[in-house]
Every structure is written in C-alpha cells, then in structure tokens.
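Subject: design request, 453 residues
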C-alpha cells in the first residue's frame, strides 16, 4: 500500500488530507512540525510527503533540505497558504516535486499524488515490478466466454494494433490491458494507466501532453505528460468515454501523427506509444448524442475486446473465489480459511452487479469476519447483502420506526453499496451517482464509513 506523510501545523489541514488519502486507500501518517516529520520519515519511509512551507521552529524549506539529505529520491510536495513565485522557485531548487497553494483542491491533490507515486515507481527494481504485476494481474476463469477473451488477447498482443476494451464496471478491463501489454513486444517498456474520469477537465491536457514551466498557475517546472512517459511502451486510457471532445481531438492528432506539443510549449515531440482504451459506456450512443467523436472511435477500435459481466459466467465464480482466498492467505490476511460448499453455492447464485471487483471484496470480508475456520452458508447470509436466502438487510430497513431514520439508513446503505461496487474509489463513485466529490466525503464522514481491511 502506498505510504503518505502529511506535515502541517494546522490540525484541520492534517485531518482533511488524511481523510482524502485514506478514502483512496493510502496509508497515512501525520506530523505537526519539522522535528516530528524528520523522525517519522526515517521510520515510515513514505513514498510521497506533503509538507507545509510555513511552520513554527523548522520551516518547510529547511525540513525539505533535511529530508533530501536522508533520502536523495524523496518525493516532496510543498503546500502553502502564502505561496509566492520566489518560494516555489526555492522549493524547486531544493528538490521539491511540486508546489500547491491553499486552499487545496481535492482533484489536484490526487493527481499530484499519483504523479509522485509514478515518479517513485521509476526507481524501483524492474524485475520486482514485473513479478508484482504478474501476480496481481492474472485473468482467472474456466468458462468458454473467458477463454474466448484470452484467445483474442493472445492473438492481438504481439501486434501493434490499438484495442478498445468494453465492459461493465469491475469486470477487469485494466486486467485485460495489462495482459495485452505483458504479452507484447513492448513488455519491457512502461505501462502508463490514465483514468480519464478521475482527472478534472481543465487538467486533462496537462496530464496527457505535459506542460512547460509557467504555462499556468502552479506549473513551477516542466512536466512530461502520460504520452511521453509511455514512450516505447503502452498508454491505457481508462474510462475514455468521459474524455471531453476537445481532448479527444488532440489525442486523435497524436494517434494520427505520433507528435505532441506540451501545454505552453512550441516544440513538437515525437512519441512511439501503443494505446489501449476502455469504457463501460456504449460509445455508439455517445457518438449519436454528440458526446464522442466518430473518427476518434474508429482510431481506437481497431480490435474490440468485450469483457463479460460475472453474471454471464457464473461457472467462473468458484475458481475466482479460490484464487482470492489463496491471495489473501499469501498476503497474511488472517489465518487460512476454506469456503464450504454451501457458502460457495450461495455466492455463485448472486448477480454481482460490481462484478469481479465486488466478489473479491466480498471474499476478503468473509475471510476476516467469519468466526470459524471455514466460511459457511450462514456466514454468507449474515455478511453479504442480497444473498439467495433473502433480502435480510431490506427487511431490517423497512422495520425502522421514523421516516427520517429510514431516509438516513437508506442513504447509508446506498452510499456504502456504491463505494464497494467501485472498490472504494471515491472519485469514481461520486461521478457515477451524480454527487459532488466534496459532498460524498461529507457523507462518508457523517456515517463513519471506512473500507473493510
């Protein structure tokens, strides 16, 4: 799990940042001053540090210098409520990765964190990354429909053709993209994934094409975009159906010409990138309604791969469950447990609207919360809503006394269900349910929701 250190003398800022990052499934430690930050840095070894500039005692710039002495590869993002160009320049000279001004925008925070983690990833062992990717991105299944998907992967991977991967949320579209990459001639090059739905529209060009220093507020250094980072490798455009028409036109030009220009720049940069795209939207409908470019669609859809929902391949549920159980045991996820036949039958009978992702989370929950040495049918009934034995949770909801209590319980159930279905990705959940992300964070805090560990 990626580790994040937050250093700020304002408790409210520390708490707000902790909440944002923990809900995105990062491990977070906070420090209220420079000495505490340096102490935590040595023991915690964060992947990314968010460091306030103005603090009593040791100020942020001095702490930055000392962190860089401890770790030459440290990725430190400076944050300030009194940002000036001079301060930003000095921080950059001292080795800061980025500089953000308060009040902090959640979208910008998450984009900056992701970029920082990618930077740290470049210094890791290539062989280690290969082994981790190989173990995390196995496609499991015995059904004919999943065999057909695997056969198409084997046939198209050695070529340089673009692939459009479609399927419902949680079916494993990125899994397919990674399998294509690791079976291709570009396997030794980078695999760069971009969630087009998670990046604010005003930042998508900067993220994809990069930017030059001074091209917009906060651009304190030149930045290579995802296309450049994926040079000689693969770029995976996830949720491409959410990309704006303007961004589609610019990506189309890069696909046609293999040339891009950074935001604020004038130099043409040549890139050699294979592109895979994925979406859960029906792009033909998006084209008819004017939200997706037809020429862009045909550039992406050279070879289509449809990833089936889990309800259409129920025979794959048992092997998937066995796979997730073995992974949980290998990750020290509690004492080893087995899944009894009755429990397996209960799980196989469900529709799994969140698909493989929901199944994985459910298996982990059962392994953690089931009291015995084996998961039984009654454990499934008690711990999984919507089981074949009846809608137990729905009955409990209808039995509350007051209407206001019913509304609160219903809202809680709905939000928790949607978070689980989207693997606790708050940005994606907010987008899908049509709620501002800040409002969703408030609801999560109100109900005390947290991801099951």
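Subject: RE: design request

Done. Sequence follows.
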């Amino acid at each position: 799990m990626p580790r994040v250190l937050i250093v700020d003398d304002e408790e409210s800022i520390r708490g707000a940042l902790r909440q944002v990052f923990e809900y995105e499934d990062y491990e977070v430690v906070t420090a209220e001053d420079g000495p505490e930050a340096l102490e935590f840095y040595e023991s915690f070894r964060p992947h990314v540090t968010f460091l306030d500039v103005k603090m009593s005692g040791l100020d942020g710039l001095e702490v930055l210098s000392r962190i860089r002495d401890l770790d030459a590869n440290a990725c430190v993002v400076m944050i300030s409520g009194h940002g000036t160009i001079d301060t930003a320049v000095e921080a950059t000279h001292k080795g800061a990765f980025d500089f953000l001004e308060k009040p902090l925008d959640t979208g910008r925070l998450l984009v900056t964190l992701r970029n920082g983690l990618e930077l740290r990833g470049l210094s890791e062992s290539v062989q280690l990354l290969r082994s981790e990717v190989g173990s995390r991105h196995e496609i499991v299944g015995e059904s004919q429909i999943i065999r057909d998907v695997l056969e198409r992967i084997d046939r198209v991977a050695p070529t340089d053709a673009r692939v459009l991967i479609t399927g419902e949320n949680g079916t494993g579209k990125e899994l397919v993209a990674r399998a294509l990459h690791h079976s291709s001639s570009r396997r030794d090059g980078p695999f760069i994934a971009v969630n087009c739905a998670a990046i604010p529209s005003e930042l998508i060009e900067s993220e994809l094409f990069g930017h030059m220093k001074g091209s917009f507020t906060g651009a304190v250094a030149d930045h290579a975009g995802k296309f450049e980072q994926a040079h000689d490798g693969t770029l995976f455009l996830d949720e491409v159906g959410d990309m704006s028409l303007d961004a589609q036109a610019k990506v189309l030009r890069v696909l046609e010409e293999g040339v891009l220009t950074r935001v604020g720049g004038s130099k043409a940069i040549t890139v050699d990138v294979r592109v895979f795209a994925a979406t859960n939207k029906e792009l033909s409908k998006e084209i008819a309604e004017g939200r997706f470019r037809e020429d862009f669609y045909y550039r992406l859809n050279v070879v289509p791969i449809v990833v089936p929902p889990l309800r259409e391949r129920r025979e794959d549920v048992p092997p998937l469950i066995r796979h997730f159980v073995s992974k949980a045991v290998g990750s020290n996820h509690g004492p080893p447990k087995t899944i009894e036949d009755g429990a397996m039958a209960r799980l196989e009978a469900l529709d799994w609207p969140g698909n493989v992702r929901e199944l994985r989370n459910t298996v982990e929950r059962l392994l953690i919360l089931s009291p015995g040495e084996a998961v039984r049918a009654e454990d499934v009934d008690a711990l999984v809503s919507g089981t074949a034995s009846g809608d137990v949770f729905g009955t409990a909801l209808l039995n509350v006394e007051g209407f206001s209590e019913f509304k609160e319980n219903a809202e809680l159930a709905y939000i928790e269900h949607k978070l689980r279905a989207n693997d606790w990705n708050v940005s994606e959940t907010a987008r899908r349910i049509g709620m501002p992300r800040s409002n969703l964070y408030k609801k999560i805090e109100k109900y005390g929701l947290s991801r099951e560990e």
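Residues 122-137, 388-396 have pLDDT under 50 and may be disordered.
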